[in-house]
Write a structure and sequence with these properties.
The chain is α+β, with helices and mostly antiparallel strands and 718 residues long. It has twelve helices and 34 strands. Strands 1, 2, 3, 4, 5 and 6 form a six-stranded mixed beta sheet that branches. Strands 15, 17, 18, 22, 25 and 27 form a six-stranded antiparallel beta sheet that branches. A hairpin with a 6-residue loop joins strand 28 and strand 29. The longest helix is centred in the first third of the chain and has 15 residues.
Length: 718
Amino acid sequence: MLKSFFKVATILTLLLSPFGVNAQKCGTDHSVYEQMLQDPASSKQLDKIYNQAQLSVSSSKAPTIIVPVVVHVIHSNGVGNISLAQIQDGIDKINRDFNKTNADTSQIRSVFASLSGRADIEFRLAKIDPNGQCTQGVTRVNSYLSFDKRNEVKALAQWDENKYFNVWLVNSIQSSGGTGTTLGYAQFPFSTNSSSLNTYGIVVRNDEWGGLGTALGGNGRTVTHEMGHCFNLLHTFQSGCGSSCSNSGDRICDTPPAANETFGCTLSNNTCSNDASGPSAFSTNVPDQMENYMSYDDCQYMFTQNQVNVMRSSLSNSAYPWMQNMVSASNLVATGTNDNYVPQTCSPIAHIETPTRVLLACVGDTITFSDNYTYNGPVQSYNWSFPGASPSTSSAANPSVVYTTPGKYNYTFAVSGQNGTSSQFISQNIVVTDGSNTPYDGVLYEEGFQNALQVFNEFIVENPTGNTKWERTTTAGFNSTASFKLNNNARSGTTFTQGFGEVESFITPSIDMSNVTNPKLEFEVAYRKRSTSSSDYIEIQSSIDCGKTWTNRWSFTNSDIVGSNGISQANFTPTSSSQWKKVSVFTFQGNLNGQSNVMFKIKFNSRDGNNAYIDNLKVFGTAIVGVEENSLSQLNVLIYPNPTRGNFTLSFDNNSSQPVSAYLTDLTGRRMINMINAESLVKGNHKQLINSESLHSGIYFVVIEQAGSRTVKKLVVQ
């Protein structure tokens, strides 16, 4: 049969193009079919299983095979974080389908009713995790990979495939080609080896799981369909119309072959005329079996008896030792899925909306935290810790706090239950700003990325994917060797890890523009397309309320930002200033004049392009003429040495009788050192030695105020 199988596999590769149509449902990797052509051993094993299954029909109940399951819920800040009730409902639905207790079996047409099979396979959520601890068989991960990613999501949460059947639930799935919608995909056992075992299982959209919560309802059988693939079932149309039942359709002889996938459940379809050829279950030509779970139609109600034999044989076959172990009696005990397991009360696992989302707020805002996502067991008590906030601790489920000083803050969240305690430490997830205290001289803010600073010291970086981010580089710059880089062409083999549609942003410090008219933003950008179809673009947004809301200001297409020699498939690194292009926003929709708390967000939307670099970011405008302009020249402020590694000297000329204040702030505007506190100084030059040894490396600002005016100088501490 191996020879005929290769003939069929060749046909398979010709039938892959329909996966790109709008009605696309199953996204099981096309490459696995191609492996049939390249791997004679796996092909031979699959042939053996299929030959053993043919026309082996039994009406007696077989011993039930129990499959331990873990469901990994990959959500995005709560979107898609489905309930335990929906998860269990999905398990129950699969079990009904596999064991022929689904109510819609009554709709199977009479020509196929006698061939309907009961798999006697039962899926159970694990009760013991890989560490021997109590579990509900569910994990939860907060990640933007829940949208439009494929196998990358599997690395976020994964249990031993020799012991558990892994299911990953996501919000959406990136299509592998075409414009269709992918509802789920699986990995065949015959395509699995030691190097790919950690990806075995199914990925399914959460709205296809069960019939509660986010599920769309109806009779959708996406999960049942993908489970069939995991146990070696092909599509009913996979091999088209061959010479006999053993090389047609799904190559199973009690399933009539179909020439191609169909939708809509047109019961009159009869696309192949060879239904009775070979060791077939049919003595005459019959309609296509729309009712089969491995079709694409909307009236899926059954597996055939020989399909059942294939699945059961695959679960117990020595060619797949991980599956043999997974369903073994000893492993059922180890995973708590055996019949005699006594249910335990599990300890809760702390889980909240982090770490991909930064919480932005103003000084004095009331911030409320909520425990909406703790799982695994009931919570008896809470313990929150908020250093720098008031109050600094709380035992409430949903506490509220206030921060009175600008800065970046950590917090800790802990829950306790009957059998233990779990906690999360969230680093620099809260950013509190106050534009009125943010140093700005009324004329210019600029950053050239020349100093070796941590990215989060200067900018707020929104990194929703956890995959790549804006970060400082020393390999390229407009007029130096430093800039801000987005690794937008990251590769893993031939796969681009920066996915289509991903958005990576960074946010400037809060800027006081109360003494500026006609504000402008400007920066240099270096970027290349990866192909003529690349459609990356940059959006500019602004906020005047500490980042709680954002207003779209401008959008630049890739044609606006691409420089000379605009296409490069290799990882792009600019090597000359000619490869950079200046981007300017001179007119803002809505007036920012006079605003004391302005933040800008630069959003890069990835659309299959190449790396991007930003340098010499500037925010400037026209200074309001008055005492500020005069005082700027009169004070003549100098700071030296700058950069400094310890002490520095502040020098300025005082030509006024008005009191003088001088202080040092960090990038958020938080006061670090008070140098002069509203003192009336004699006219003339003043010098003051300042001890900065207590400061961490980074950028700071020296601010001098007099008569309502402010002068600001940047200080670099190395």
